[in-house]
Amino acid sequence: TEACKQKMDGRIRQLTEVMLRQYGVSPTHALSAPGRVELGGNHTDHNRGKVLAAAVDLDMTAVAAPLDAPVLIAYSEADGEQRIDLTQLDPVPAERLTSRALMRGVVRNLQSDFKTGGLLIVYDSQILPGAGLASSAAFEILIGGAISAVYNDGSIPPIALARAGQASEVRDFGKPSGLMDQLASVTGGVVAIDFAPDEPVIDSLPFDLEATGCRLVIVNTGGSHTDLTDAYNRIPDEMHSIAAVFNERDLQAVKPSAFLAGIKVLRALGNDRAVLRAFHFFAETARVPAMLAALQSNDMNGYFALVRASGQSSALWLQNTKIEGMPEHQPLHIALALSEHFLGNEGAARVQGGGFAGTIQAYVRLNRVDDYMAFMDDVFGDSSCTVVRLRTAGLTMKALDAGQ
User: Fold this and answer.
1) Are 127 and 138 in contact (CB under 8 A)?
2) HSE of 347, CA atoms in CB hemisphere, 13 A
3) Are 199 and 122 in contact (CB under 8 A)?
4) Cα-to-chain-centroid distance, residue 151
5) With contact defined as beta carbons under 8 Å apart, do 216 and 366 qualify?
6) pTM, whole model, 2 decimals?
7) Which residues, in sequence order, are CB contacts of 148 under 8 Å at separation 6+?
8) Average pLDDT, rounded, for the chain
9) What does residue 40 show for φ and ψ, rounded to 5 degrees?
10) 135-151 vs 99-111: helix crossing angle, rounded to 10
C-alpha cells in the first residue's frame, strides 16, 4: 500500500542519516528481509520433510555501501557495531551464537561462486528477538542480499542466499537450522516446501488471511529462545538417530510402515522420546499437504482443525512446548490453554517456531482480536500480543540515487 511504501521510505531515510553520521558514507542500495511464521511442519525441515510457512510484515531493513577495506561492518543503533575481517573467514569458536558468526559464514559460503568485497550495512529490525520469527534467518538473508545487490547486480539466486544463510547458522553460529526459515524469508508469501528432493520444491500460494475474517496474533509468554540451542540440537539429533537404524540419514527416507513395524526394536535403544519425535515427523509431514489444500479452498474450519492437530503433536510427541527439566515452568502450555478456552472452535493456536519457550501463534476472528489480546495481555503483560500480517514480498533490493 502507499502507506507501507511511505513508511519504508522513511526508514531508509533514517538509516541513510545514521550511515552518514556514523561513517560518513552514502549508501548505494536499500534492502528488506522479512521474518517468517511457520504455519505447519514443526521441526521437519532438518529431516527433509514438508513445511508450510509465510513471510510476515515484521522485517529487517538496511542500507548498504561498498568499502575499499576488506571488512564487513553491520551497524544498528540497537545492537551497535559488528565487524569482521574478510581475509579471515574460517569459523571462530569464540563467536558461536553471535551475529559476527553469521556474517562470517554467509560471506564464506558465497565467495566461491559470487563476487564479494568490503561492505558497510546499517540496519534496523522490527522482528521480535527470541520469538521464533526467524530473526537470525532474516539477518543472514539481509547480509547475503547486500552482497548480491552491491557486488553482483542483485543476481545471486534466492536458493544460494538461503543455503549460505543456513550453512552459516549450522557451522558458525552453532544451531541446527533447516532451510525453511531462510527460504521463507527470501521467497516471501505463503510457501509449501518439500525438502525431500536435493533441490527443494517450493509452491507459492497467493493467500490473504484477513480476507477470510481472521488475523494471526503472536503471543510472547516472556521466555526467550536464546539459551535453548542444546534443546533444539537434540530434536534433529534424535530424529537422525532413528533414521540411522534404517541406514538412512534423514527420516524422510524411511517409510512410515517400516518405522511402525520397527517400534519394538527402536524402543530397545532406550530413548522413547526419540521414537515419539519420529512419530511427530511422519504425522506432521503428512499434515502439510492437507493444510495447503484447506487454505487453497478457503476451508478455514478444516485448516483450524489441522493447526490444532499440529500443536497437539508438537506438545505430546515432539515435546517442544516446555523447557526440559523445568516442569513447574510451562508458559507456552498456559498460553495454549487460555487460547483454547477463549477461541473454542472459532480459531486455533499452536506453538510458534522452535518452541520450548517464547511464543505461540493464534488465529483469531477479526471481531474478537481486541478482546483476545486484552485477555492474553492481562496474564502475560501489556504488549505481549502482536498482530502479524502476511507479506507477499520476500527479500527486496533497490539501488539508491545519489543523495537519496
Assistant:
1) yes
2) 26
3) no
4) 26
5) no
6) 0.91
7) 114, 154, 155, 156, 161, 397
8) 93
9) -165, 155
10) 40
Which three cell numbers mark 8? 519504508
- Which three cell numbers, joined as nine digits, stand for 69? 577495506
- Grid coordinates of 101: 558468526
pLDDT tens-digit profile of 33-76?
Answer: 999 999 999 999 999 999 999 999 999 999 999 999 999 999 99
Residue 279 and residue 221: Cα distance in Å, rounded?
Answer: 27
Question: Which of 390, 395, 399, 400 lies closest to 55 in space, CA to CA?
Answer: 390
Q: What is the CA radius of gyration of the chain?
A: 21
What are the grid coordinates assigned to 229, written together?
A: 540451542
Burial of 92 (0-12, 13-18, 19+ CB in 10 A): middle
Residue labelled with grid coordinates 483469531: 364
